[in-house]
């Protein structure tokens, strides 16, 4: 434990380097803006900034993207509470009580509770992240290729099972992502696959092109179809934040701790992320909370539970990313891409080979949460004022960043056409309610899964049962099967009870779209 504290202290010192601190503060500011601005989502914002990290030092690149990830779970709370417009799906549960409290003439109080929830949930999760990542990585050092393949399968199955909408659509999305990942030169035998005699495809399709196209261009095309909103929203010029007293915080300390722990645990589950954490934490309070009958009427519990869980999920999602190389959310999938752009594969070895970088990232999460809350407290008026930007102008800048990003890696015009093609694909996915996350994670994790599978076949004489007979691999494969079976069982039960939702539980109507 002393060694961990020593390395964490060194990480805090590294964060004080001017360039690292600049990247940290810039990431926090951009993450808050992404949460507030119409037309942008947290994952899209991180994707758009990924190309700009290509020439950076890897530590500064990850610090920048991680800071955006942290603050993105908080920035959208402003519009949810003040305007009933969730900056992210994360903040849909928050507005049920946050906006209700604002309508009672207490917007400053609602914003104050949101800030406290983000601060406490984030810091508790950061502590758990530091404590748990190294033991998880040390345990994973005993893994061989069958265990890695099983973990990758579990990660992909989790994305499918925890995605919203049709399970069949999620499976199709994942299969398409795996197909895209197979384009290029086979890593084991060196044979060309699906290249159509195009030299640019011999190196495969860059996952950055897929992410930027599907998330960035696809979202702009979707909003173009719906029509851009031109109405300014920033009419809260006197908005401020009113922090609760210490005694008020202590009255809800049990609920705050419970929601933070729940959010952290959900964050660890690959594919879950902050949105699932937010909804689950709100649902737990609605079912078992002390004021469960008052939820939705503007009570503190309805604000604190989803926000603390959402921010706490960040630390949880970084554990499987760093210790196992498995992204726990859409944003960590992009951060995994940043690691791979710099030639680093997160996993068990990273704690030994790059411990200084890892603990600098840990320290940046602590500092970033504090900086985020300070900026959220003092800069709320300019943040809300950003809503005066027309959505069409924001979308134009998004397209500009997309084109820059597509050219950043290989400087090839073909990548621009590929990006546009994946943009159209992302639009069609949005149009026909296919989830994009399985597609993107299939592109990123597909080559890793294939390599682990082929190495297992070579090492164990083509014995495919090795994935089920080895204790750890077999257990993880069983968990992967469970993650697929549970939503199927939920859909069957829902149909029998006449409930059309996948899990058999009613979901409140979503608020007005941005």
From TrEMBL:
Under the heading Pfam families, the entry gives: TctA
Can you tell which superkingdom this protein's organism belongs to?
A: Bacteria
Q: Which UniProt keywords apply?
A: Membrane, Transmembrane, Transmembrane helix
Residues that span the membrane, as ranges: 20-50, 62-85, 110-132, 139-161, 167-188, 261-284, 321-344, 356-380, 392-410, 472-492
The residues covered by the DUF112 domain are: 21-441
Q: Which InterPro entries match?
A: DUF112_TM
List the PANTHER family hit by this protein, alphabetically.
TRICARBOXYLIC TRANSPORT PROTEIN
Protein name per the record: DUF112 domain-containing protein
